């Protein structure tokens, strides 16, 4: 489990993923060396990662939530293959290990090759459904409440960076910068200059412009289990259309949820629940969720394993890039 300094550091990084350790230390009331040491320990022992991600709308990306079912002996291999692809995020094994859920990213003008070609040609997949993500109420720039419950309002004000309302579109020239930030959101200006071929001053100016316009945001990845949430589930809901916005906005305030989004399909709202244990999940479903008007149906799919969060992953040593492709049917 994490102590108060660890939780404060995670909360601070959600507010400003590139905040200097000295600034975080001042807000937390500890030394800079303590913050740096805690950050290194959390990276090494808890899988902490800070990643820079584009706002999907500014980047011209369409996002689909794909649900696949496969035979038990192939589902994990398929999920790992999906996780290694650069056009996926949030890859999870659910429902007894036979269901795979993944977010698929594609430019609005693309042909969606993963959905239209690669997945249908994979023999071991027994069913596929794809749900277009219409609107995200919780997730992306807005963090799970379990990650952001450590700092006071005054501390949060000290760490929250200022933004402007001036639009700042993401262009093709930003691809290398975004790729580097997706691997490490705290990469130095020198490291980002090496990845982009730009000068450090150009990197600093472009990064500042994108951040000020909220064209990019910084996410913090760490196991929810370390914050006391050992039970996870995906909730697929059918909401009365006239109540969809009200219900989704209410759910976005629930501390048990880390993701809430409106989708297309037979269910029009999906959420990701993180609870202390199965009893806490049952209490949430029957008391808090069950008391809301407008929820017509609810399907609960337990999450057994998360193979990929928002950021890219590095294929294990010895596995060539070609293994990242799904295996077609013969």
From TrEMBL:
SMART domains: HTH_ASNC. Residues 238-306 form the Transcription regulator AsnC/Lrp ligand binding domain. The keyword Transcription regulation applies. Keywords: DNA-binding, Transcription, Transcription regulation. One of its GO terms (molecular function) is sequence-specific DNA binding. GO terms for biological process: response to amino acid. This is HTH asnC-type domain-containing protein. It comes from Kutzneria albida DSM 43870.
